[in-house]
Design goal:
Chain lengths: ~400, ~400
């Protein structure tokens, strides 16, 4: 219950969440190169829609037609609730600004405090680069670059389920949806609250089926100091590793942006390839970073990753990179001690990478499995336990 | 981050949540007398409706007309989202039972596991006494006694906000709503999930304005081993004290009921009157337990409590009994050490009660306050900071 106590404490006017993000070194720019040539992405070109159109082949297309969350009753139940939640209309922006301090510092600190009060794991703020906006929505309508500022909300995935999962089983989607459900609730509440204070605000969250994103999250996560680009091609947080989901509230409320962070991940991921070695679809690069749409990154083979997930007969979504990443281990004091050493010493990095391989951070823990393997077939449920073993 | 790690761990087939409830002594019957003469309560007779009808006087009636959550922008924003969430229809019960073990033990353990996975603080199960059902709904329609079994879900209130609040300020409603929002999300998800597995299920949660209760929670909390009757007139949990809210999922899925618990609270509350001393409306009894509708309890003066809250010009809802109760202190190891001693020794009880009075567990901590005091007046927001100080 340490987290319950640590949350929300204000010391010398500095607000802290449950994770000691204030210990991480802040820098002027993200640790990966970002050029001016970043092109806005069309929401019709994200993996799900590309696969649905048949551009990843007939087999994958057929897999997509059977909705992933709809394969399994727990993820389907979570989807029932998320589909409904995402339709909340909310309160319009008040005609007058509330009689509170209007300085960006005070407002940013206050909204972060609200987020921690609502049980976010990390809160951040940033200026939204125009290129982070998708160019067109799923219906092909151009998306307006409407808000300059973003509040970023991070929720960790359930570590015990991640740890117990095999990466090819039935709890993958529910793990992501647990974070997304809570993010949706918090993002909609904060957006409603900001509008009631007199600024405009729009809640942005996943999963993609709720269609509530008009921005890409990774550029916001980099700029709000949530993490660095990782080998898995996504943003890695020093205390949650790859085990989290994020949402944003876009707003015209003035904010003080957080600074990008540098905890030595670019060198770490260069040496550690444990996520790539554990990826069942060989979608994670084992090579060097490349430039992709103006971002220096290890480029995930989206087609391979999506094709594996959409056609996986033994489960819903794969969390194998998440569970194998040594940074995903919980932020308890022994793990944080290692984190501290790894952040400050090259030698410690090398030892930690070797240790992660020796200990096998991607190991399965079937003894901690609590879910049933089930699949909807012709509207009925079939047991999939036998096929797992 | 200890809680993140401890959640959901299965040891020897015994599931544990973040709080060590397995350490608490289980008993055959609740520690307060319950007779066979309990009458079902009419939802039209809960304090809010009684006050609205003018039965607590004109001043209170006028206070109720101005909605409490609507007085303050954060609680109003939470209400925006909860009002919408409560309208989720969800999935009907599947025609066939899922191919999973149908033993009550396996099903109860599984649903509790799902609840912990969805970040409940405590999960319980019980048989629902018929008298726990309200007799009529708010429209006067008789409520059917439909389900025999209940899954109980508990979420702690944000301790730092409870600690920083004065009991007569603007964060009272938001504190309750933070727990209720999350409870609604989890209860609706679990109800949907149980229905998808083939049993019927109904999510029960507050606040009363969402109108999702057809049962009273206290009888369920007693029977599911969540806590004992306390001097404040509500059920007290050994690790959350009075600082929590609860929801239930009523179902025909077979369950193994938990046992009531005995951690010595009846004697503790008899000696400790700190909640009564801290109550600004003198609504909490300083005397002995009485029989009330078949339950032996310290009887809260509902009229005084409700009248104070509905007419409070300096805030929304009062959490003063919650924050002053020594059991509400967080479940960190030093507090749990004291808990253990108090549960097992009369002398330790007496010393703890004396210490709570000396240390002043109901103290305010304005230095940790992060919210703004605001009130809607004629649809605009007015600052109420000055009137607080």
């Amino acid at each position: 219950m340490e987290s319950r106590e640590k949350r929300n404490v204000l010391h010398n006017q500095e607000r802290l969440g449950p994770l000691p993000m204030e210990r991480i070194r802040q820098v002027g720019e993200p640790t990966n190169i970002i050029t001016d040539g970043v092109q806005r992405i069309d929401l019709r070109n994200i993996a799900y829609d590309v696969a649905r159109r048949g551009e990843y082949g007939r087999v994958v297309q057929k897999g997509v037609q059977k909705s992933l969350p709809g394969k399994y009753p727990l993820s389907a139940a979570q989807k029932d609730v998320m589909d409904h939640l995402s339709l909340v209309t909310g309160h319009p922006a008040a005609m007058e600004l509330a009689p509170i301090p209007h300085e960006p510092e005070a407002l940013t600190r206050h909204i972060k405090a609200v987020g921690y009060f609502l049980k976010a794991d990390i809160m951040g703020a940033c200026i939204v680069p125009q290129s982070a906006y998708y160019s067109h929505d799923k219906q092909g309508v151009p998306i307006e670059v409407k808000y300059e500022n973003a509040i970023v909300i991070v929720m960790g995935k359930d570590w015990n389920a991640v740890r117990a999962s095999t990466g090819s089983d039935w709890i993958g989607d529910p793990i992501s949806f647990q974070a997304y459900q809570h993010l949706g609730l918090v993002a909609e509440t904060i957006a409603n609250y900001i509008r009631r204070l007199g600024w405009d605000a729009s809640a942005q969250y996943g999963p993609s089926f709720v269609d509530k994103y008009s921005v890409l999250m990774p550029p916001l996560l980099l700029r709000a100091g949530i993490g660095e680009v990782s080998r898995a091609g996504i943003i890695l947080n020093p205390y949650l590793g790859l085990g989290y989901k994020a949402a944003a509230v876009l707003t015209n409320m003035p904010v003080v942006p957080d600074k990008p962070i540098d905890f030595g991940l670019q060198r770490f991921c260069q040496g550690c390839k444990i996520c790539a070695e554990n990826c069942p679809s060989c979608a994670i690069s084992t090579g060097d970073k490349v430039m992709y749409n103006g971002y220096e990154t290890w480029k995930l083979d989206t087609r391979r990753c999506a094709s594996f997930n959409f056609t996986n007969k033994k489960g819903t979504m794969c969390n194998r990179c998440v569970k194998s990443c040594p940074w995903t281990y919980p932020a308890t004091w022994p793990h944080n001690l290692v984190r501290g050493m790894v952040m400050h010493s090259r030698l410690a990095q090398q030892i930690a990478i070797r240790a992660a391989h020796l200990l096998g951070t991607g190991k399965d823990h079937p003894e901690d499995k609590w879910w049933f393997d089930l699949e909807y077939v012709d509207n009925g449920l079939k047991s999939r336990n036998d096929e797992q073993n």
